[in-house]
Amino acid sequence: MTCYWHRGEFVAHAYRGHAPVALHPSTAEILSAFDTWTTPAQAAEALDHLHPETVVKAAGTLLECGLLAEEGSPEAEEDERLADTWGPWSPEASFFHYATRDVPFETATPELRQHLTRGGRPALFTEYPEADRILLPSTPDPRLSAPLEQSLYLRRTHRSFSAQPVSLHDLAVLLGTVFGPAEFIDGVEYGALIRRTSPSGGARQELDAYLATPNATGIPASLFHYNAREHSLELLREGFNHTEAGALCAHQEGTDQAAFIIFVTAARERMRAKYRHPRAYRVSHLNAGHLGQTFALAATTLGLGPFQTAAFDDTAVESSLGLDSATHSTLYALAAGHPASDTPTDTTDLNAFRHTTLRHGQPGRSDD
Ligand SMILES: Cc1cc2nc3c(=O)[nH]c(=O)nc-3n(C[C@H](O)[C@H](O)[C@H](O)COP(=O)(O)O)c2cc1C
Fold it and tell me: Quick check: CB of 157 below 6 Å from ligand 1?
């Protein structure tokens, strides 16, 4: 279970198959008396400052809410199994997973529609009107007509880059192709919506691109926001080097050599304005994955080596970008550069397959 305070109430949520329940905070003490297999009578004895009947009655209610389980019951066995299978991911990942499962698909309520039409619509684009900017060229690039199959099979994660800077043209093509609007559609009560080359749940397009350019021609080493409406780079801060890039990205190999890094961040309100259930947070991560794949394929097609990571220091990234973490989440870091000529191919051999578990339950082979 997970317990939390919500809107002034103490809530306990046996999150696998049970709804959250508001309890009196003192119930936590009763729950704690059941931290090993204990009968209600034993618990009543241990909590001798409470009336025994109160403890026994509370135990019955807690059992009904799934907050207690009976020894040997299928629920207790399932609890053990889940603790085992989720292991160190529990409770954070398991809570989010189960608490956002099997939810009915929600359509906009009349109240929500009213709210949206009365000025509650979040802005379609993120923009920094006061920032200095570089307007990017919109030159079409014939390389993007390369066969899809070629890009799909050439794509690989690069972790070693040459010192050759990325050109302004390549950056502009990539940003426009991955993050720019492909067209606008009528979202009725939501107004016009953007379509990109990647799908986005509800066409909310809550994801923005922030660009760090340690090694690009015609662009100072700086931090920018990509203004998708204008196809421009809005300057947030001058000065950005490879050391900072590595530090922001948990020193993942190659992040301190890549020509540029794009931090994909979610302006959560743009998603939340339509989808009220926390399950929608899953959708933002899926959206980021789509953008990441389009980025990797487009970068490959342009002859660049892409890299992506979820290993970054959220607080440091958001503070560098001047983003309020109460309203924004950094979801993905996408980087690229010209691949180093000595980038090794890590193809496998017979020995590697010998040490592979190809089938569940297959006896392991020692590594020597
Ligand atoms: C969501 C995601 C996060 C990743 N994070 C890292 C990372 O932190 N460090 C790293 O070296 N590679 C990272 N990678 C790259 C993967 O390790 C790589 O995709 C995998 O080894 C398969 O190789 P390929 O991309 O060349 O096919 C990440 C990939 C994805 C999709």
Answer: yes
For residues 248 and 307, membership in a common domain is answered with yes
Q: What is the pLDDT of residues 53-91, one digit of tens each?
A: 999 999 999 999 999 999 999 999 999 999 999 999 999
- Residue 17: domain span: 2-99
Q: Whose CA is nearest to atom 7 of ligand 1?
A: 309
- The answer to whether position 287 is within a domain reads yes
Is 343 touching ligand 1 by the criterion CB < 6 Å?
A: no
Whether the CB of 290 sits within 6 Å of ligand 1: no
CB half-sphere exposure, 134, CA atoms < 13 A: 21
C-alpha distances in Å from residue 112, one per residue of 11, 39, 91, 190: 26, 48, 33, 10
User: Closest by alpha carbon to 211, among 200, 195, 222, 201?
Assistant: 222
Same domain flag for 63 and 150: no
Ligand 1 pocket test target in 291, 294, 308, 330 with most atoms within 8 Å of CB: 308
Query: Are 158 and 300 a contacting pair, CB within 8 Å?
Result: no
| Closest CA to ligand 1's atom 3 | 309
Tabulate helix, strand, coil % of the chain (nearest 5): 35, 20, 45
pLDDT tens sequence across 182-216: 999 998 888 899 999 999 999 999 999 999 999 99
Q: What is the mean pLDDT of residues 255-260?
A: 97
pLDDT confidence bin for 367, thresholds 50/70/90:
low
Shared domain for 270 and 171, answered yes or no, is yes
311 lines ligand 1 (CB under 6 A): yes
Is the peptide bond preceding residue 91 cis, with omega within 30 degrees of 0?
A: yes
Same domain, 177 and 216: yes
Do 129 and 82 fall within a single domain? no
Domain count, the chain: 2
| First-to-last C-alpha distance (Å) of the chain | 44
Residues 68 and 177 placed together within one structural domain of the fold: no
The residue-averaged pLDDT of 89-113 equals 89
What are the tens digits of pLDDT across the range 286-329? 999 999 999 999 999 999 999 999 999 999 999 999 999 999 99
